Amino acid sequence: MKTQKSTAIQVFTLCAMLIFGINAETQAKHEGKLNSPIADQLPEFELSKLGENGEITRDSLKESYHLLYFWSVDCPISTREMPYMHELYWNQAGENFEIVSVSVDEESEMVESFIDRVYPMPWIHTTAGGQNRQLEPFVTAFELDSFPVKILISPEGEVIDITQGFGGKKYINKIEGLLADSEPA
């Protein structure tokens, strides 16, 4: 009986981690990012903007703070987090801050439809999944293995924070605190 209960708890824990997109080992690495082998600079990359001309590159993200939000239309955690991303965006709009949504979906049409019909998002969008094959530099540099993932980048291109999984209001407070601490005195 004790073995069955222990096994059931282990299975429940594993399922919860998979459902909520959290890999405890990777999250632990990300929490201590500045003292770990995970990159502290963005890798070189080039992504096409969705719905408009232009590219997003490492160099184009300089001059202001950027939050790279890796997500998927099919990920319930990603979509559950959208109201919080909106709150963060509107709280920081015009404050040297921008969100860049990086969809890992196979089809850019799915993302465009989601933005048009389900959840309009007033920030920059791109897709790195499917045939674009542009996700690899990020996966390699930051050991990404589940989504959503949020990476806060400084105007100098330094990685300030990496958070994997759902963040909610606690995450907004964390990022707003980091941004406030980063402002010149």
How many angstroms does the end-to-end distance come to? 61 Å
* CATH level 3 topology: Glutaredoxin
Shape: globular
Mean pLDDT, to the nearest integer, reads: 76
Q: Based on DSSP secondary structure assignment, what is the total number of beta strands? A: 7
Evaluate the radius of gyration.
17 Å
Q: Supply the helix-strand structural class.
A: alpha/beta
Layout: helices, strands, pairs:
Elements: H1 2-19, H2 24-31, E1 46-48, E2 55-57, E3 65-71, H3 76-92, E4 97-103, H4 108-118, E5 124-127, H5 136-142, E6 149-153, E7 159-164, H6 168-182
Parallel strand pairs: 3-4, 4-5
Antiparallel strand pairs: 1-2, 3-6, 6-7
Helix pairs in contact: 3-6
Written overview of the protein:
The protein has 185 residues and is of the alpha/beta class. It contains 6 helices and 7 strands, in the order H-H-E-E-E-H-E-H-E-H-E-E-H. The longest helix is centred in the first third of the chain and has 18 residues. The radius of gyration is 17 Å and the shape is globular.
